[in-house]
């Protein structure tokens, strides 16, 4: 598979919207952090060690004994242009940290883009598995299969008393980060998110924006993930997160029902105003586009809009990011040029959707 496919196709299979509760839970992600014993951690290793680690993981992953992953393609960060790396970050296939590595980073991506094994990021190995909807257990099972396969032929840095050793102390133990991406316009519009976020934090979880730590909740999309990796089993971490997410899903449904009962015409007006902006704007910035797309997706979920696919939010939230816009344009664009191209792309895509 070519690099161009990863760069040009906006929607990965895990964004299909076919998983459980996918009207609210856009995706589930499991990430395992691992390091290879007898090698210094990425902060201290040599160029030779970094290359050896890439070769070790490449050999293991390209000979996976099961077909779930499909073909695995190796991408060397040093060989990619900054714009290409930015697109991969926008698709959630690599982390911003890996994209910034100029010398040592690499990534193995599966054909369906549901599996990403980042090499020489903060740790030697970061196994990431992505599934549509609320499928944390399924993502954990896949990640564990890959983890076991690598460990059968490689010795991990591990301590019997505390677990897997990682570059950052916050990942020591299981090395597990479990997260879900959620679309929560109902809770935002009913002004409940400011109350819910502190309550979630008290449970040892954290709420972040669409691209993780330090990012904004564009389009009312939030990531909820665990903070603790030490002192709990992987299964307990995932089960605790799933339980909280299920409660948030229930609260979001209740908020939508309340809006429908108390502010139906106002909500319908908001949805169609946003659709009008998207289908008629000639210039639109990222934040406004994200807000309007969120409104349209809510309108689709609540039955106001019937001739546009639910997956339009997933697709356009990626297509309208700065990296993707410039990838389609074939080169760098000034901010104003991006805003014009973003508006054009949205209009064309929505018109095409209506014709299908």
From TrEMBL:
Catalytic activity: L-arginyl-[protein] + ATP = N(omega)-phospho-L-arginyl-[protein] + ADP + H(+)
BP GO annotations: phosphocreatine biosynthetic process
A Pfam family it matches: ATP-gua_Ptrans
UniProt-listed Enzyme Commission number(s): 2.7.14.1
First and last residue of the signal peptide: none
Location of the Phosphagen kinase C-terminal domain: 24-255
Record entry for activity regulation: Appears to be allosterically activated by the binding of pArg-containing polypeptides to the pArg-binding pocket localized in the C-terminal domain of McsB.
Keywords: Allosteric enzyme, ATP-binding, Kinase, Nucleotide-binding, Transferase
Protein residues bound to ATP: 27-31, 92, 126, 177-181, 208-213
CC annotations in GO: extracellular space
Keyword Transmembrane helix among record annotations: no
One annotated GO molecular function: protein arginine kinase activity
InterPro entries, per database record: Arg_Kinase (IPR023660), ATP-guanido_PTrfase (IPR000749), ATP-guanido_PTrfase_AS (IPR022415), ATP-guanido_PTrfase_cat (IPR022414), Gln_synth/guanido_kin_cat_dom (IPR014746)
Gene3D superfamilies: Glutamine synthetase/guanido kinase, catalytic domain
Residue ranges of the motif RDXXRA motif of the pArg binding pocket involved in allosteric regulation: 338-343
CDD domains in the cross-refs: bacterial_phosphagen_kinase
PANTHER family the record matches: ARGININE KINASE 1-RELATED (PTHR11547:SF38), ARGININE OR CREATINE KINASE (PTHR11547)
Physiological role: Catalyzes the specific phosphorylation of arginine residues in a large number of proteins. Is part of the bacterial stress response system. Protein arginine phosphorylation has a physiologically important role and is involved in the regulation of many critical cellular processes, such as protein homeostasis, motility, competence, and stringent and stress responses, by regulating gene expression and protein activity.
NCBIfam families hit by this protein: PRK01059.1-4 (NF002194), PRK01059.1-5 (NF002195)
Protein family according to the UniProt entry: Belongs to the ATP:guanido phosphotransferase family.
Name used for this protein in its record: Protein-arginine kinase
Source organism (scientific name): Niallia endozanthoxylica
Gene of this entry: mcsB
């Amino acid at each position: 598979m070519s690099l161009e496919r990863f760069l040009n196709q906006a929607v990965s299979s895990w964004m299909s919207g076919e998983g459980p509760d996918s009207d609210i839970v856009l995706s589930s992600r499991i990430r395992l952090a691992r390091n290879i014993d007898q090698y210094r951690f990425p902060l201290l290793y040599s160029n030779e060690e970094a290359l050896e680690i890439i070769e070790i993981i490449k050999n293991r992953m390209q000979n996976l004994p099961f077909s779930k992953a499909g073909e695995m393609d190796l991408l060397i960060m040093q060989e990619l242009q900054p714009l290409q790396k930015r697109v991969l970050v926008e698709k959630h296939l690599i982390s911003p940290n890996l994209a910034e590595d100029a010398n040592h980073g690499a990534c193995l991506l599966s054909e369906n883009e549901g599996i990403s094994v980042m090499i020489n990021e903060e740790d030697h190995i970061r196994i990431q598995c992505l599934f549509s909807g609320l499928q944390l257990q399924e993502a954990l099972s896949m990640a564990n299969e890959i983890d076991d396969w690598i460990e059968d032929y490689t010795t991990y840095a591990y301590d019997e008393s505390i677990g897997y050793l990682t570059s950052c102390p916050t990942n020591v133990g299981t090395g597990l980060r479990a997260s879900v991406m959620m679309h929560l316009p109902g809770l935002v519009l009913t002004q409940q998110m400011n109350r819910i976020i502190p309550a979630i934090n008290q449970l040892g979880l954290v709420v972040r924006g669409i691209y993780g730590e330090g990012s904004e909740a564009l389009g009312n999309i939030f990531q909820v993930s665990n903070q603790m990796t030490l002192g709990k089993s992987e299964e307990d971490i995932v089960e605790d997160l799933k339980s909280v997410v299920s409660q948030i899903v229930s609260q979001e449904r209740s908020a939508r029902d309340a809006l429908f009962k108390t502010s139906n015409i106002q909500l319908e007006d908001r949805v169609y105003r946003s659709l009008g902006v998207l289908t008629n704007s000639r210039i639109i910035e990222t934040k406004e586009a994200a807000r309007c797309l969120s409104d349209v997706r809510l309108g689709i979920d609540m039955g106001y809009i019937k001739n546009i696919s639910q997956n339009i939010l997933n697709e356009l939230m990626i297509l309208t990011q700065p990296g993707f816009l410039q990838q389609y344009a074939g080169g760098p664009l000034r901010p104003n040029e991006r805003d014009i191209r973003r508006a054009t792309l949205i209009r064309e895509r929505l018109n095409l959707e209506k014709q299908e």
